[in-house]
Amino acid sequence: MDLIERAAARLAQQEARPDKRQDEDFGDPIEQLPLPVAVLHRSVEDHGRPLLKLDEERLRQAGMVVPDSTRSKIKEEYRHIKRPLLMNAVGKGTSVLKHANLIMVTSSHPGEGKTFTAANLALSIAAERDKTVLLVDADVVRPSLGALLGFSSERGLVDHLVNPELDISDLLIKTELPTLTILPAGTPHHLSTELLASTAMQQLTAELSTRYRDRIIIFDSPPLLPTTESCVLAHLMGQIVIVVEAERTTRSDVRESLERLGDLPETAVGFVLNKTRHEMDPGYYGYGYGYGY
User: Fold this and answer.
1) Directed axis angle between helix 73-89 and helix 114-125, to 10°?
2) Contact call for residues 179 and 131 (beta carbons, < 8 A)
3) What angle do CA 116, 121, 123 make, to 5 degrees?
4) Residues in Cβ contact with 13 at an 8 Å cutoff, skipping those fewer than 6 apart
5) Coil, strand or helix: which one is 143?
6) Which residues pair with 133 in a beta bridge?
7) Could you list the residue range(s) of the whole structural domain that residue 219 is in?
8) Poorest-pLDDT segment among 49-63, 76-90, 271-285
9) Which listed site, 176, 233, 241, 271, has its alpha carbon 20 to 30 Å from 221?
10) The domain spanning residue 139 has which CATH number?
11) What is the overall mean pLDDT for the chain?
12) How far apart are CA 238 and CA 85, in angstroms?
């Protein structure tokens, strides 16, 4: 059974579940609770540069992973999602991947939860004892990490690609979580696809992958079907996570998305099934998200 058939089978199983119901804990947090532009606040300084402080209460209300000591369903779910990704990143997965610590999160269409997934994955990995995370807003067409996490920045990834002499370190936003850093999308550009396909982008991803061995780089990329940017980015990645929205993303969407990616023999492609609705056994952590190859 090939990758497309396995993905279709997963969707078919989900659609066939007789015990579906709305799980209040796993709706669409982004649509149900629009966050104001203040989830992150300018706070203490690091060598003269301001840090961003995560507003834990707003993250909690949005149903996201919160960097505190409490246990939650969403935290448990992302512990499951991140583990195979981290195993691949350190070369302990089923196959050895080139640039395995470069992880692209995408979806077939907008609104299926890719940015929510990328942000939560970054927050979850940032809790690891021996890993750091760089979260890159690579959705240079419609960047949304800033709206979700509450930061704004005029410069970012695109500006570096337009002018590679612009030091990438000057574009990074550090947070009060010492293990989490953000690279904004930057200034919109009409040649965004060409910039992502440029030598400058190839050099940047290679440097990010090899400079810090303990760093995981997560790219929140544009959706696959309405844009071309993700298909270009995919060839630079070691792992790709496609977010599939239960009861919305069709099997044909999944098939076409995989076809758009093309042949990627050195890249692991997995799926996160988002916004599932099913009855949960008492006392069991009911996962509204799932990851699998």
Assistant:
1) 80
2) yes
3) 95
4) none
5) coil
6) 180, 216
7) 3-292
8) 271-285
9) 176
10) 3.40.50.300
11) 82
12) 10
